[in-house]
Design brief:
- There is one protein chain.
- The protein is mainly alpha-helical.
- It has one domain.
- The chain contains one helix and no strands.
Length: 35
């Protein structure tokens, strides 16, 4: 039971990391375009 919860948390963390990375990439592009 606990392993299942841990797996879900890890999946959520990976998804969050990807979203953050994508957001950072977009922000970098916007900043570069602004110059």
């Amino acid at each position: 039971m606990l392993n299942k919860i841990i797996e879900e948390v890890k999946k959520t963390e990976r998804a969050a990391d990807k979203i953050i990375k994508d957001a950072n990439d977009k922000a970098d592009k916007i900043i570069n375009n602004a110059h």
